Amino acid sequence: MADENQPQAPKKGLGAVLEEAKEGARALKEKVQEEAAALKEPEKTQLFRSIFRVKHDDQPRNRSLSVLTNVFFHLHPAKINRDAVRYNYTWGMGGITFFLFLVLSFTGILLMFYYHPTKAQAFRDILYLEHDVPFGKLLRNMHRWGAHLMIITVWLHMFRVFLTGSYKRPREFNWCVGVLLLVLTLLLSFTGYLLPDDQLGFWAVTVGTNMARATPLLGHEGPLGAELGMTPFNDVRFALLGGSIVDSNALLRSYIWHCIAIPLVAFIFMVVHFWRVRKDGGISGPAPVMLETEMKDPRKGPRPVIMTPSGTPPRP
Amino acid sequence: MDWHQLWQIISTPDNVPIVAILFLIPFYTWYGLRQALANDRLIAELEADPQKAKTHHRKTQPWKPGWEKEVHVWPYLMRMEFLVALIVTVILMVWSITLNAPLEEPANPNLTMNPAKAPWYFLGLQEMLVYFDPWIAGVVMPTLIIIGLMAIPYVDANPLGNGYYTFKQRRIAILSFGFGFIVLWISMIIIGTFIRGPGWMWFWPGQTWDHNRLVFEVNRDLHEALGLPITSMWAKSIFGGLVVGLFYLGAGYAVHKLMTINEFTRRILRRMSLVQYVTIQFFFITMLSLPAKMVLRLVFRIKYVWVTPWFNV
Ligand code: HEM
């Protein structure tokens, strides 16, 4: 029954079939060409728009949006003091420090794939890295020299911030965050020093932690330490090393401080640091110079103990 | 002259950063001060000509009317960041390809390294151990350095020089930071690296590190050096306390002189609260105690100034 209702397709000759196939091929070709042409403008594709959300043609509005709508870029403001983009004001030192932190995290994670924090294996793992792991030596060198370089760049960053008076109101607190970052950077480097478990690291850490013995009150050789019942087995040095000598517990503790605890804390403080740079009104300068004659003497009368609250404009 | 010894120190891989510092610190000091002096000239010009001060854009950077004060981060800042990241990567790569990270023998508690040195960035603290007992050099001083650094923004009552390089408007601040950072911290690291050899003894650059060297130097306490007939613990404690107290008074007087050296610094002083003044005094005097003790120790061979049953200074 169904057969009867269906219109019988007319028998086609070979030529007609070929013609139809050609037609189909032409349509396909056109579609391919069309889509290929569309690929020349990737920013119009659905994929692209779903990732980047806004147009990226060269208009002031879109230049701003490309910064503001990207979670990584929006650490930046959309616009910035025209003289601050030159190298000579900030020396780029804060940025370089952060970049080195990223490089160190990257190489550090790769190193962790090859390293066991145990007395039996640590030193051998380093030898293995140096001689057998492809690019292992390069990896280790980059991690080591990157760490040294980061310390130098933190110091230079601090020096720059001081020379430009950038710690002055309203950036006092960010300077303090910076000081903590400086300490954390040094501690990161120091805890890493022990990990190869060689003579260099062992004695450096021994010398370093021996000082902790002398902590007043909390060290067994420090002033008033013995009087408070401190011994080599319960003082602050013992807590740092997990023992009375630099041994396997010290290696493990070093490893955990170095690979987990300090990087995490440092990262959190960096987030705060960058956030504060933005909230304090961006980079401090280069600002127009102020003249001595424009400095007004403070009002007479009772004054807060430290200074007027941070964030309020300087006293006129 | 033992060039080999010197070369050995310089080419120790972990010392290469210090060689880099020897170049980088002077360079950036010059780079910053050069901009400071340029700004100072501009400031002098504007102070001499109040009319110009009203119209000038007050920067040494070029400026034309009609220029935007701000530029887009994309691309003007980001291309710089990208370039800098690229350059740093290249430097780090070249450094890592040409120089291997050190690896010594496996750790061995029975084989003492001599000299056993802290990593270079802590050599300043280790060098301080020569002049002070460990509880001061290793615990109190680092703590004070950290707290002192954090206190800087809260005790600097000078509102000028916020956001631009200047020397003229912040002489004391810049000179004292330079003193602490470059003269004390960096140069102690350099002493620790280049001068200190086996037994933490003083070897001039180029002098051979002699592991059997003996030094017959007698370090005395101050009261012995002065030949004072003091023997009882109480007398020693009181005498030392007096000397330290006198040092605080003398250094405090000098710091006060510095803070009132001209009309400008006196104006800044008038802006300060008492807490700020006392904090500055405390940290300056403490900072000065290091070079004071260095001279006493290196020149006069004095070990302790203040001897008590509980602690020695
Ligand atoms: C891990 C260490 C650090 C990182 C990654 C870091 C990163 C940065 C970055 C990227 C900036 C933006 C401006 C620039 O590049 O100079 C900045 C600004 C700043 N940093 Fe840091 N910093 C670090 C440590 C420090 C230290 C040790 C201090 C001071 C003791 C400090 C104090 C400041 C201040 C006050 C600003 C604002 C400067 C201005 O507005 O001109 N930072 N930091």
Short descriptors:
heterodimer, A: 316 residues, mainly alpha, Cytochrome Bc1 Complex, Chain C, 12 helices, 1% strand, B: 313 residues, 63% helix, binds protoporphyrin IX containing FE
Question: Can I get a quick summary?
Answer:
The complex is a heterodimer of chains A (316) and B (313). Chain A is mainly α.
Runs of chain B in which pLDDT lies below 50 for 5 or more consecutive residues are none
Share in helix of chain A: 55-70%
Q: Kindly report the oligomeric state of this protein.
A: heterodimer
Average pLDDT of chain A works out at 87
Task: Write down the CATH class of the domain at 90-279 in chain A.
Answer: Mainly Alpha
Ligand catalogue:
protoporphyrin IX containing FE
Biggest β-sheet of chain A, characterized? none
> Could you give the order of the helices and strands of chain A?
HHHHEHHHHHHHH
Major interchain interface with per-chain residue totals: A-B, 111 and 107 residues
Structural class by secondary-structure content of chain B: mainly alpha
CATH superfamily of the domain at 90-279 in chain A: Cytochrome Bc1 Complex, Chain C
- Any low-confidence stretches of chain A, pLDDT <50, length ≥5? 305-316
DSSP strand tally of chain B = 1
Q: What can you tell me about this protein's structure?
A:
The complex is a heterodimer of chains A (316) and B (313). By secondary structure, chain A is mainly α. Chain A has twelve helices and one strand. Chain A is flat and about 110 Å long. Helix content of chain B is 63%, strand content 1%. In chain B, helix 6 packs antiparallel against helix 11 (274-300). The interface between A and B is large, with 111 and 107 residues. Bound molecules: protoporphyrin IX containing FE (HEM). Protoporphyrin IX containing FE (HEM) binds next to helix 6, helix 8, helix 9 and helix 12 of chain A.
Q: Layout of helices and strands, plus pairs?
A:
The complex is a heterodimer of chains A (316) and B (313).
Chain A: H1 2-5, H2 14-39, H3 46-52, H4 60-68, E1 79-81, H5 87-90, H6 93-112, H7 122-131, H8 136-163, H9 172-193, H10 199-213, H11 236-241, H12 248-279
Chain B: H1 3-11, H2 16-48, H3 50-55, E1 70-72, H4 73-98, H5 123-131, H6 134-155, H7 171-195, H8 222-225, H9 233-259, H10 263-271, H11 274-300
Protoporphyrin IX containing FE (HEM) binds at residues 90, 92-95, 97-98, 101, 154, 157-158, 161, 164, 166-167, 171, 174-175, 178-179, 181-182, 185, 270, 273, 277, 283-284 of chain A.
